[in-house]
Amino acid sequence: FLLLTLAVLASASATAQSAPLLTVEPYLFKAGDGRSVEAELGRFHVPENRARADGRTLELAFVRFPSTSPTPGPPIVYLAGGPGGSGIGTARGTRFDLFQSLREVADVIAFDQRGTGLSEGPPECPHQVTLSLDATPREAVAAAYADAARACLAHWRRLGVDLGAYNTEESADDLDALREALGADQISLWAISYGTHLALSTIRRHPESIARAVLAGVEGPDHTLKLPSDQQALLAEIDRRNRVQNPEAPSLLADMEAVLTRLRTDPVTVETEVEGEAVAVGVGAFEVQWLAANLLGGPELSMQLPALFAAMRADDFSGVAPWLVYLKAPAPIRAMSSAMDAASGASLLRRARIASEARRTVLGDAINVPGPTLDAVLRVPDLGPAFRQPVESDVPTLFISGTLDGRTPVSNADEVRVGFSRHAHLVIDGAGHSDPLFLGSPVILDRMRTFFGGTMVPTETIPMAE
Which run of H or E residues covers position 337? Predict the structure, then answer.
């Protein structure tokens, strides 16, 4: 393939002439299921830290799927979640058809944010978090993460990594640099989870550059740390749905309280198999809270909680043991994702609310582990209170939420959309986080295609497809 180096419209305006140099080459894009499509692989450079004139640059990458429309709209840029997800990697997976369908409206761009996928960023850390399979209190889990984070921080410092350059505002400016490199007056944003957090920052910082936005699984400016009350409300809804299907089922919340009360004073040890070998696994109260919090992403996992806790209340801990082995497997500390979350932080009001709610909810704030521990060690510069203020915008925006999403609940979108003068909210009843927010019903693609085509869609609630 011939490499095309574009200076982006030599005959264009001075703004376009100063745009980042863009290289584009033909690219045979292969999906994970073996299908392939002709596309383009693009690369451009941005400052790693725009506050340092003498700093290094980063090469960022994207894949462009050219539009099939004779009159395409502004390019649609996909922003993966995480932070740390790869847009290019996402396009290879279950959403491949979605990327291809949206080409009917505009070019679709799978973008790898700084520090992800094919884009440059900090090197991986060789140190991992290692947790004992014995019953481990919260303090010991936090200490293990802190030890690994300190080792990683020393490693990155030896390599000259500027962790302070990995924050959402730098990434928002990267998106405007991408727009300039493409020679586009505006781009549209298509985002999920952390990607919506980035999209909202971009809308605030570069409002004239954004044509439209579809934000699924909304993480607002002050939503990085999760609310215990949201998880408590979801547990109550899981309990309700379970007892509709099984009227004789015991109360999930009552079972959880009973199991946790027992484990706080009397942890259990149970045997399970790991790679064909018998191992002893300790089951303590915090492990169970942490596991349950992590199973609340969507109903494919969360609807297993009633049976899991009913069994534990009946003194059968065999079902929870394999989950705890998985939860405690050696884990890396990733620079980009850890720094991004640390820089976004949380307002004093939200921190106080989390602390208050943690004392009166069954899972406490286990969902936020190990976030605050990593933040305290890495000490990345905080983006400040102004970053966490509500966004006000007239950019047309379609919000998408799932009623069984334990990461980004419907209330997040309801809070954020107050500041948007032109918006719609599509609620998917029965959808959890991630794929179901896009793939849970064919109606979702229809609404997205219509919206990106320039027409507003209604605010509505639709069921998950059978």
Answer: helix 335-344
Q: Write the DSSP symbol of residue 380.
A: P
Query: CA geometry: angle at 74 spanning 73 and 80, to 5°?
Result: 120
CB contact at 8 A, 95 and 79: no
* DSSP state string for 158-183: HTT--GGG-SHHHHHHHHHHHHHHHT
Distance (Å, rounded) from C-alpha 76 to C-alpha 373?
36
> Tokens 């976004």 — which residue?
344
Q: Which helix (H) or strand (E) holds 296?
A: none
Handedness of CA 84, 86, 87, 89 (dihedral sign): negative
What is the three-class DSSP state of 271?
strand
CA 53, CA 56: separation in Å to the nearest integer? 9
Dihedral of CA atoms 151, 153, 158, 161 in degrees, nearest 10, equals 150
Q: What is the pLDDT along the chain (466 residues), one digit of tens a residue?
A: 333 333 333 333 333 345 678 999 999 999 999 999 999 999 999 999 999 988 899 999 999 999 999 999 999 999 999 999 999 999 999 999 999 999 999 999 999 999 999 999 999 999 999 999 999 999 999 999 999 999 999 999 999 999 999 999 999 999 999 999 999 999 999 999 999 999 999 999 999 999 999 999 999 999 999 999 999 999 999 999 999 999 999 999 999 999 999 999 999 999 998 888 999 999 999 999 999 999 999 999 999 999 999 999 999 999 999 999 999 999 999 999 999 999 999 999 999 999 999 999 999 999 999 999 999 999 999 999 999 999 999 999 999 999 999 999 999 999 999 999 999 999 999 999 999 999 999 999 999 999 999 999 999 999 999 8
